[in-house]
Amino acid sequence: MELHEITLGDVTIGGPLGSSTGLMVGSIFYDNHSVVTDAFAGEFDRDRANTLIERADKAAAAHGVQMAYDVIAASPEAIQAFLPFVAERSRAPMLINASEAEVRIAGLETAADLGVLERCVFASLNMDTEDEELDALRKHRPGAVMIMANDGADPSPDGCCTFIEEFYKPMLDDIGVTAPIADLGTMDAPSVGSCMRGIAAVRERFGYPAGCAFSNCISQWTGLRELGREYINYSLGAALVACRAYGGDFLHYGVIEKSRAIAHIAGSAEVFFGFAAQELDGHKLPENHALLKMFKLANEYPS
């Protein structure tokens, strides 16, 4: 099976493990994000949001990893405020994410007006996708379309693949998408293991870039909260590396405030994956790959 690669602006995801780094995705403007002052009006603390974006971009560059922003909005007005702000300050990919269809459609239209559709990800197609969204995707084609590939009735790897084949393939063919990004959903911390198997199964059967938002369940691990915040981060890092080892291309680590720690964890792992891909598989790594960056960190973060 051909492993599809998807280009999102300056970023490439998918393909053989280690040939490029995984895409680390952090949420900004999410529900109750401290920078947001009015979620529906799209009002926020611009200085603090700018600092978070600068920090994430610097961490990604220093560690040689690829990062994206999960831009979450509660209304069309909010997405029209949030997307331009991020797009003007970073060249990283952006997920157009909202619970309401009208907000996702407004996000596509805003990205088209800004001329940044090629580095946007529509997040996402699901069982409740409306015809209006498909029409919008035909008119405004983003760099990638994400599918929620976890089948609640059968969350096994085979069940997820069958779900993609029977439910999503006709929809994707209809709107002309050859290769989506498959998000294998997680329900709780132990289910990350099943998700990892699902990632490998989707890549093997369809060749799609695949991954998950493992962060959603690590924060709910009550025993970790009792130990302290750093233990949540340790388990978050373990989930990231484990999912990446199974081929995870899309790796949602949670809130953007964690970007520097995640960049270091991801960069360390990508050194191992990248070296093997280069020396054993003959892949030429991107010039800013972690393998070439992680041994120069002292220059980026002097003591």
From TrEMBL:
GO molecular function: methyltransferase activity
InterPro entries tied to this protein: Dihydropteroate_synth-like_sf, MeTrfase_MtrH/MtxH
GO BP of this protein: methylation; one-carbon metabolic process
Keyword terms: Methyltransferase, Transferase
SUPFAM superfamilies, per the entry: Dihydropteroate synthetase-like
Family matches, as Gene3D superfamilies: Dihydropteroate synthase-like
Keyword Methyltransferase (UniProt): yes
Family that this chain belongs to: Belongs to the MtrH family.
Protein name stated in the entry: Tetrahydromethanopterin S-methyltransferase subunit H
Source lineage: Bacteria, Bacillati, Actinomycetota, Actinomycetes, Pseudonocardiales
